[in-house]
């Protein structure tokens, strides 16, 4: 996506709950400008990524490194790796998976706040960043809580449970 920067962070979270909680806290407090926030499984643990309109400031990167994160800043080409060497690889994998839209569970995405209650699939696709709803043939989506679609093959896909 033109003009986007992907920030990958790895702190060796062991559970999806832990990475989700941390990613949402970072989004609320430090990385609030992120348009999309994702959680990723990398090398047997969990990392996170954020799509930003602009690269994070030097202050932001320093703060993240001080908190122990492996950091990868990517805007089409690798811009920077920082933090503990053992966590940099996971951070980079998360940033690239988000950039390429091949993997990652979206915790925050455009249009998400409007998706409360029951909505037709065509409305979900028209008014949010979700590209596809599975299984095909589903007519509506009940968004009682936060929907968490995942990237698959370049699309943000919501799988509905029955």
- How do the strands line up in the largest sheet? 5-4-1-3-2-6
Helix count? 4
Structural class: alpha+beta
Q: Percent range for helical residues?
A: 25-40%
| Number of separate structural domains | 2
Furnish the topology, listing elements before pairings.
Layout: E1 5-13, H1 16-29, E2 36-42, E3 45-52, H2 58-66, E4 70-74, E5 78-82, H3 85-100, E6 105-108, E7 117-120, H4 121-127, E8 132-134, E9 140-143, E10 150-152, E11 155-159
Parallel strand pairs: 8-11
Antiparallel strand pairs: 1-3, 1-4, 2-3, 2-6, 4-5, 7-9, 10-11
Structural write-up:
With 162 residues, the protein is an alpha+beta fold. The chain has 2 domains: 5-108; 112-159, no CATH class. It is 28% helix and 35% strand. It has helices at residues 16-29, 58-66, 85-100, 121-127, and strands at 5-13, 36-42, 45-52, 70-74, 78-82, 105-108, 117-120, 132-134, 140-143, 150-152, 155-159. Strands 5-4-1-3-2-6 form a 6-stranded antiparallel beta sheet. Strands 8-11-10 form a 3-stranded mixed beta sheet. It has a two-stranded antiparallel sheet with strand order 7-9. It is elongated. The model has no long low-confidence stretch (mean pLDDT 94).
Short key terms for the protein model shown above:
single chain; 2 domains; 35% strand; alpha+beta; 162 residues
Summarize the structure.
The protein is α+β, with helices and mostly antiparallel strands and 162 residues long. The chain contains 4 helices and 11 strands.
């Amino acid at each position: 996506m033109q003009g986007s920067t992907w920030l990958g962070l790895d702190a060796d979270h062991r559970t999806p709950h832990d990475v989700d909680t941390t990613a949402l806290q970072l989004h609320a407090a430090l990385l609030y400008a992120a348009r999309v926030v994702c959680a990723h499984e990398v090398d047997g643990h969990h990392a996170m990524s954020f799509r930003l309109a602009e690269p994070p400031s030097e202050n932001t990167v320093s703060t993240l490194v001080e908190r122990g994160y492996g950091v990868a800043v990517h805007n089409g080409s690798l811009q920077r790796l920082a933090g503990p060497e053992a966590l940099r690889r996971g951070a980079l994998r998360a940033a690239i998976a988000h950039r390429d839209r091949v993997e990652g569970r979206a915790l925050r995405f455009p249009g998400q706040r409007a998706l409360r209650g029951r909505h037709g699939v065509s409305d979900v696709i028209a008014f949010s960043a979700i590209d596809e709803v599975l299984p095909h043939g589903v007519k509506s989506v009940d968004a009682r809580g936060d929907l968490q679609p995942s990237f698959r093959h370049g699309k943000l896909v919501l799988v509905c449970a029955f």
